[in-house]
Amino acid sequence: MKWLVVSDNHGNWAQLNQLFEQYRPQVDLIIHCGDSEFPADDPIWEQVDVVVSGNMDFDPQYFSVRTKDSDVGKILVVHGHRHGVNSGNHELLEMALGTNAKFVFHGHTHRLYAEQQEGVLFVNPGSLNHSRGPIPYRTYAVIDVDDDKTTVKFYTDTHECLTDLTQEFAR
């Protein structure tokens, strides 16, 4: 399985639409972790499998938490501002374990990372608007899941793979 995970584009519709159009034929799922700043009924969401609200998404039609079953395990998607992600992913780990999620995707911090705890893979794809972390690029993530491993690759908004940040996790 192959998934595109994005977050925190903060209003850049054209860029997000281009990214979705580019990846839609290549991936099984497209996931948006919030702070699009688009209305919940925007036609762009027709290309997306899972979307949640961020702290800058004010349309009440958005969900703040979504789960998605996949052939390789349950996916939990949140923005993170309601789950203490600025100080770690402890709350998200509890949510994941409580819902049997194997993958947790979130945004909010604008800081990309991938890590595994207690059999749960956590990924923040960074921000398509601006980075707040030590990685100075606007980024998104592509996750490849096969029988043996999960590979997380981060890309810049110009589609350059940040190969030194690629990580593999045993399944």
Structural commentary:
This protein has 171 residues and is mainly beta. The two termini are 13 Å apart. It is built from two helices and eleven strands; from the N terminus they run βαββββαββββββ. The longest helix is centred in the first third of the chain and has 11 residues, at 13-23. The protein has a six-stranded mixed beta sheet, with no helix packed on it. It has a five-stranded mixed beta sheet with strand order 4-5-6-8-7, with helices on one face.
**Strand numbers in spatial order across the main sheet:** 3-2-1-9-10-11
Residue stretches low in confidence (pLDDT < 50, at least 5 long) are none
Mean pLDDT: 97
Determine Rg (CA atoms, Å).
Answer: 14 Å
Coarse morphology: globular
Number of helical regions: 2
Q: Helix fraction?
A: 10-25%
What's the count of strands? Answer: 11
Summary, kept brief:
The chain is mainly beta. The chain has helices spanning 13-23, 90-99; strands at residues 2-6, 29-32, 50-51, 65-68, 74-78, 101-105, 113-117, 120-124, 139-145, 149-156, 167-170. The chain has a six-stranded mixed beta sheet with strand order 3-2-1-9-10-11, with no helix packed on it. A five-stranded mixed beta sheet has the order 4-5-6-8-7, with helices on one face.
SSE blueprint and pairings:
Layout: E1 2-6, H1 13-23, E2 29-32, E3 50-51, E4 65-68, E5 74-78, H2 90-99, E6 101-105, E7 113-117, E8 120-124, E9 139-145, E10 149-156, E11 167-170
Parallel strand pairs: 1-2, 2-3, 5-6, 6-8
Antiparallel strand pairs: 1-9, 4-5, 7-8, 9-10, 10-11
